[in-house]
Amino acid sequence: MTYTITNWDRATFKRCRRAWDFGSRARGNYEPITPPRAFDLEEALRYALTVYYFPAMWDWSRGIVRPIALEGFGKSMRTQRERYEAHRPFSPAEERDWAEALEHGDALLRGYFRWAQSVDHFETLHVEMDVDVNIPDPVIRGVGLVTPDGDTMYYRDRLELLVVDDADQFWVVTHRLAEGGWAHLDQLVLDEEALAQCWACEEFYSKVTVAGTIHNELRIDVDPPPPPAVPDPAEAYAWPQRHTRRYDEFGPPPPPRPATEVVDQQTTEHFRRTRIARSRAEVEGFGKQLAALAQDITDPMLRVYPTPSWAHCGRCPYRSPCIAMNEGADWPGVLAASYRDRGPERIERGRIGGSTGTWFVR
Fold it and tell me: Which of 88, 97, 90 is CA-nearest to residue 338?
């Protein structure tokens, strides 16, 4: 038997054990019957960027790819709407917000695609790819962790975007929406989700050494960039000649870095890209932290308690039963009325990136 800890488990357990206890597949496995929000602009924008950076289309003219990515954005927005309206109709306010978000997101993506044309100096290798890796024992080298019941422990994460630059160095790219100003640099340096992808990638591909992380930010709280006064000429959509290579054709791994450092940053009013080189100690240290967390999660004497904070409680999908539990109310009744067991994990048919290893094309 196996015990799988997902990136969601890792992040939610550290943020609030009670929310993790409600939602983890190994615990309550509950999900809200009605989506907590009418739509999620970030989800739709991420889907469009997944299409835009899809490796099988990376050598295509951007004039062909851009409309496909924009259609992907619209498709995601419509799918979210249909999912929500299956339970309740849009209110007039939700209808207005959805239409405004659709228009704003489309304009933002068009501006981003024009900007990205000048800064995407890399080749895409993987996008939205699931990886499962053994969690190594922090004490005994070469041995994987097991639960107290003897089950092998795995960690599952999703590589948002893996690229290789002109110097044959691998980088993990993450997209994030910025609101109220750009993220502080320390926030990017401490971004554990990106670091987790670095570690998982190296564990999955033993010959790959990740040089660092690239944080791709899009501002959603300002008016999107206006369209160009003169349409771009056809040659503006063409990529320079690229050479498709296999992993064994890349150069030697980069030399070990003594410390994490910001090596490059490109900023406009609407977009910012920050490249952060990661040290070996930082990436390897994450594996040890993950092992300690895995041991806590599977501890038979684990204590489950809430961690109240408006920063995450305001958007938590398990807020209602948690409050009922705090107040001594009928929280099992809240779960029975508004939540359901999500059942076993299902392969997302048709998802860009697919399941583990499905879209390895380089």
Answer: 88
Q: How many residues does the chain have?
A: 362
pLDDT band for 349, please (50, 70, 90 cuts). Answer: low
Give me the domain span that covers residue 40. 34-120
What's the pLDDT tens digit per position in 309-323? 988 898 899 999 999
With 0-12 / 13-18 / 19 or more C-beta atoms within 10 angstroms meaning exposed / middle / buried, residue 206 is exposed
Residue 207 phi, psi dihedral angles, 5° rounding: -90, 0
The burial of 311, by beta-carbon neighbours within 10 Å (0-12 exposed, 13-18 middle, 19 or more buried), is given as exposed
Spatial neighbors of 307 by CB under 8 A, at least 6 apart, are: 15, 16, 17, 18
* Predicted local distance difference test score (pLDDT) of residue 251: 73
Q: How many folded domains does the chain comprise?
A: 1
| Residues whose CB falls within 8 Å of the CB of residue 247, separated by 6 or more in sequence, listed in order | 205, 207, 208, 362
In which element (H, E) is residue 99 found? helix 92-119
In a domain, 181, yes or no: no
Positive or negative, the CA dihedral 218, 224, 230, 231 is positive
Token readout for 166 is: 């002109």
Mean model confidence pLDDT for the chain: 90
Q: Which long-range contacts (CB under 8 A, 24 or more apart) does 181-189 make?
A: 182/217, 182/219, 182/267, 182/272, 183/215, 183/217, 185/262, 185/274, 188/213, 188/215, 188/274, 188/276, 189/260, 189/262, 189/276
pLDDT tens digits, 140-188: 888 899 999 999 999 999 999 999 999 999 999 999 999 999 999 999 9
What is the largest distance, in Å, between two alpha-carbon atoms of the chain?
A: 66
DSSP class per residue in 219-255 = E-SSPPPPPPSSPPPGGGGPPPP-----GGGS-PPPP
> Does the pLDDT at position 29 exceed 90?
yes
Does residue 44 lie within any of the structural domains? yes
**The pair of three-digit structure tokens given for residue 285, joined into one six-digit string:** 């240290």
Tell me the pTM.
0.90
Q: Is residue 203 part of a domain?
A: no
Collapse the DSSP code of 149 into the 3-class scheme (helix H, G, I; strand E, B; otherwise coil) and give the result.
coil
Other beta carbons within 10 Å of 7: 17
Residue 349 lies in a domain: no
